[in-house]
Design the sequence.
């Protein structure tokens, strides 16, 4: 390819910026609902950021150490921008540089165009508002205003560049199945961090409107304020105190970080443009059957169980659903322990959430379901298909419930309540398996064609999703009412609770068997409709 065929730098920059604007416009034109959600989300995000910035500005002059609150906020914001590509990369196609590797682009213009395009959108605007509020929390006098004029845009530029440099440096890994695994665990870690921030904010601002105490932030802020890009915004506070040399040093540190990030980003783009993906160079290997599956049942049920467990570990959306269920339970349990209302009977949530892993069993198969449908010839085949998938869910749900029960009993000290709590959890697990089987046959819905773990359904199926999710949760509560009702009576009247450990698993198993039989009886006649839903995209 000669040099004449390579577009000039200005054309590339304009094209990339126009491409980002076109992607935003076309994304909003898909449906009025999508446009409304995007606009409402943007307005709410800006309103929230504006409220936080206003609160930080109001702290200035009223509370000692107000600048420390701004510094800690900037630390959280920096961590968020750095970690954002690790668990949201696959949902933002504009941040994937591998889509441009086949084009005749030089790294320099590609870098400049990508940077300008990255500054377009609600994310940088919200960050600009938050950084401005953090800078105002420590501002004092004209020197602070002069430092803010340089420091605030520099900090925002560093944040955006940091995010895109991380994305480019890990582009091929993040586009792979392992990268989607990072997305799942990153989402769970984000949920845990949100709860930790909630608990921390209560300790600072008081649980019931008590006085604000910013002193716990001082040791953290004393370290963070010298780390770029946080140092760029904190330079307003330093300049306001008359320490101009240190303020210049903070700005220089942020500028040096920006240069290093740009060099890293450029080198990553250069490598992506000229280096072949290692996955295309691997020689195809024969698939050898693993010997670790010998414990599974024989026949079709065992084969289905193995396939479903492989899906749960290898398919990003299946793994996301599984670990989200476990993560939600853990978050609620941790929050209950911290806030003082924990109980061993929270274990029942595990049975409910993990039992709902049986929902939309065939939608996860996608177009591969036609191979399953071709082998469903008799009622026994249908029962074995559902039984194998139920065995797979039970193989990880029961151990998780047992381990979490031991942890809750140890934390709360209620070892006497552990047997009945475990029995109730297993009863609800069986009810969830039964309802999941029935809803998978009677109300299937289409999964999206991509493997983005953050999307669990194709557009236009809100009614079916609500029916599956909320219908199953209420249904589990109703089906498990006999076991739960007896346990409630035993707890309120000092009756024996130990029978729940025996009755709960038996009752849950009976309901699961009945649900699977009912679903199997309809599976054969509804196979064409389920196949149409599975392959619809």
Sequence:
């Amino acid at each position: 390819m000669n040099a004449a065929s390579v577009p000039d730098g200005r054309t590339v920059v304009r094209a990339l910026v126009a491409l980002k604007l076109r992607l935003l416009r076309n994304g909003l034109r898909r449906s009025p609902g999508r446009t409304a959600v995007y606009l409402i989300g943007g307005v709410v995000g800006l309103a929230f950021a504006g409220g936080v910035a206003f609160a930080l500005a109001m702290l200035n002059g009223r509370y000692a150490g107000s600048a420390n609150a701004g510094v800690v906020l900037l630390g959280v914001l920096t961590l968020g921008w750095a970690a954002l590509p690790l668990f949201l990369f696959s949902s933002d196609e504009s941040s994937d540089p591998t889509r441009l590797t086949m084009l005749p682009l030089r790294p320099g213009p590609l870098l400049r165009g990508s940077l300008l395009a990255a500054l377009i959108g609600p994310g940088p605007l919200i960050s600009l508002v938050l950084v401005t509020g953090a800078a105002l929390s420590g501002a004092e006098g004209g020197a602070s205003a002069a430092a803010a004029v340089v420091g605030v845009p520099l900090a925002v530029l560093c944040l955006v560049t940091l995010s895109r440099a991380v994305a480019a440096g890990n582009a091929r890994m993040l586009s792979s199945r392992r990268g989607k695994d990072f997305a799942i665990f990153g989402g769970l870690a984000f949920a845990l961090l949100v709860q930790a921030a909630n608990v921390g904010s209560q300790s600072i601002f008081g649980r019931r409107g008590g006085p604000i105490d910013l002193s716990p932030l001082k040791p953290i802020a004393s370290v963070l304020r010298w780390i770029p890009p946080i140092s760029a915004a904190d330079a307003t506070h330093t300049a306001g105190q008359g320490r101009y040399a240190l303020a210049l040093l903070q700005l220089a540190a942020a500028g040096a970080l920006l240069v290093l990030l740009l060099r890293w980003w450029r080198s990553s783009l250069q490598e992506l443009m000229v280096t072949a993906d290692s996955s295309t160079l691997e020689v195809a290997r024969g698939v050898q059957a693993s010997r670790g599956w010998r414990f599974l049942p024989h026949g079709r049920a065992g084969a289905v169980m193995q396939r479903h467990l492989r899906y749960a570990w290898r398919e990003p959306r299946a793994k996301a659903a599984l670990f989200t269920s476990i993560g939600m339970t853990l978050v609620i349990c941790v929050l209950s322990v911290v806030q003082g209302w924990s109980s061993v009977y929270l274990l029942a949530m595990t049975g409910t959430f993990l039992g709902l892993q049986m929902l939309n069993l065939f939608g996860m198969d996608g177009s591969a379901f036609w191979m399953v449908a071709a082998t469903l010839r008799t009622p026994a085949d249908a029962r074995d298909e559902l039984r194998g998938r139920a065995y797979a869910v039970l193989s990880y749900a029961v151990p998780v419930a047992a381990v979490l029960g031991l942890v809750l009993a140890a934390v709360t000290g209620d070892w006497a309540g552990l047997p009945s709590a475990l029995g109730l959890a297993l009863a609800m697990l069986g009810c969830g398996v039964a309802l999941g089987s029935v809803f998978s046959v009677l109300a299937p819905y289409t999964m999206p064609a991509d493997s983005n773990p953050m999307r669990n359904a194709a557009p236009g199926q809100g009614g079916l999703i609500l029916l599956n999710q909320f219908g199953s949760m209420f249904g589990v509560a109703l089906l498990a009412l006999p076991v739960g009702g007896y346990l409630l009576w035993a707890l309120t009247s000092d009756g024996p609770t130990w029978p729940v450990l025996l009755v709960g698993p038996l009752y849950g198993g009976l309901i699961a068997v009945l649900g699977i039989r009912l679903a199997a009886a309809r599976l054969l006649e509804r196979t064409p409709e389920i196949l149409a839903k599975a392959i619809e995209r």
Observations:
- The chain has 20 helices and no strands.
- The CA atoms of residues 7 and 105 lie 7 Å apart.
- The longest helix spans residues 499-535.
- The two ends are 38 Å apart (CA to CA).
